[in-house]
Amino acid sequence: MTKGRDTKPHIGIFGRRNNGKSSLINALTGQDIAIVSEVAGTTTDPVKKSIEIAGIGPAVMIDTAGIDDSGELGMKRVGKSKDVLKIIDLAILVISKNKFDEPEKNLVHDFQTNDLPYLIIHNKSDEEEISQELSALIGDKYQVPVVNFSTLYPVNIKEVIDLIEKTIPETAFRKQTLVGDLIGYGDVVLLITPIDTEAPEGRMILPQMQVIRDVLDNDGIAVVCKENEVAAFLNKMNPKPVLVITDSQVFPKADAAVPKEIWLTSFSIVLARQKGDFISYMKGTPHLSKLCDGDRILVLESCTHHISCDDIGRVKIPKWVARFTGKNIEFDVVAGLSKISRPITDYALVIQCGGCMITRKQIHSRLKPAIDAGIPVTNYGLAIAYMHGIYERAIAPFTK
Question: Which fold, 277-392?
């Protein structure tokens, strides 16, 4: 399963083999998009399905293997299914025939450990309806909704969809504005976008496109230029921009060119506020001044891409950290949502990218082990601003 690279809300379907998880996806979409079979264990590895849900919009459903799978291979499948908990916004536990034993209880415990909203669907009600005892047990012990349902006769499908809409966090499908709360009608936002070896041929990178769209959505005016044209353009520009957003890599040039009375920040910091743990980032960033020889830093990228000689995560940030600290620091870079091979406690600092390619939930799940272990975390843009002496200016739009 390709993880990340999709900012739509993610919903995971869990349950025993042959409980009707794939059938539920088909019922929710009204299409046969998931393979259904009477053979238990038809779904092996987690499989993503892009769907449209009324009231939520585009979403990604993840069909997982049965939690009661057996044998060495089955345990690996169960492990892959549980890995899905770190990237989803909502879990749906599918039960049937009034079975709610250790596999289900363990899974609910995993939901709770991951702070994951969930609901329970008792499927195959055409064969056996949920008992009052089980319904009461789930309601009393877990305080979560449970719906009696039949994928064969989905007469109450609207009830299920309404429950999904009610249970999934609004932050999963209603995105917080990037800059809308910083600008007013007709305000100009200047975007500084270098065209270097990392810039894709013939197009803008995703964070730049997202900010442009957000400026337009909030009735602002977006103006775009390269870093070498900033000073000359600002001299001619009238009215002056209320906000300048730069690529983090040219922060020093932007700081020198943009008058101090104009707010200046970066694309990565704007995304960090929208998706990341911004409070933890601000607490963790100053730890760059406390690094020692032999410390190890974990750099987390949210996507996989062609690596260039100017790669920001693998080349530029390590170079800036070495110059700023004067220390001998070790770096590990993990791309996408791949597993981190070392124990998180091996690291003195974690630096997360802006996260334009993944969801808010995925970023928070990615950072949670470090935060729980007391390891400082920061973000590309915040770290770069700090190391170049413009940290306070870069966060001022969000703190003043």
Answer: Rossmann fold (3.40.50)
